[in-house]
Design goal:
alpha+beta, 23% strand, globular, binds coenzyme A, 4 helices
Length: 144
Amino acid sequence: MEIRPIRDGDEAAITDLWRRCELVRPWNDPASDIAFARAAPQSEIFIGERQGKIIASVMCGHDGHRGWVYYVAVSPDERGDQLGRAIMEKAEEWLHDLGVPKLELLIRNTNVQVAQFYESLGYKTEPVVVMSRWLKTPPADPNG
Ligand SMILES: CC(C)(COP(=O)(O)OP(=O)(O)OC[C@H]1O[C@@H](n2cnc3c(N)ncnc32)[C@H](O)[C@@H]1OP(=O)(O)O)[C@@H](O)C(=O)NCCC(=O)NCCS
């Protein structure tokens, strides 16, 4: 698998990957998320490509303090081959080179089993509560 930054023309295939990986929620518009990340200098979307097909992704960035990853995905038919590890290592390398000291990520409580994947990569669960508030009119799902 070759890993490279997103480029023009990738959006439809990435969105399809995210949908097949069940990462798209009603309150998150993939096109807006991709455009916002691409417009920000402190964020990047890396994709994993094999034979011209996008099979993995990670959106990474930092807020001036911590690094974050979103949309960590490997195509369902390509899992179990260390590709998730590879795309995460790319995000870690990119953030490390920007001077980011620590990487954090969120797991939905409907997807807690994925913690084992991150634990294999050396991540641990933190004793924190995540809170949020919309700064614009909330999209369709108010629970988002
Ligand atoms: C999570 C995901 C990216 C893993 O991709 P993958 O390519 O299958 O993972 P890898 O093959 O790189 O696995 C790396 C390690 O994690 C472990 N692992 C991966 N998925 C696992 C799972 N579901 N349960 C337990 N361990 C898992 C592997 O056994 C491997 O361990 P090892 O290196 O000690 O042998 C993929 O399953 C996926 O896209 N899931 C749906 C989207 C998702 O939930 N993303 C995360 C949102 S927070």
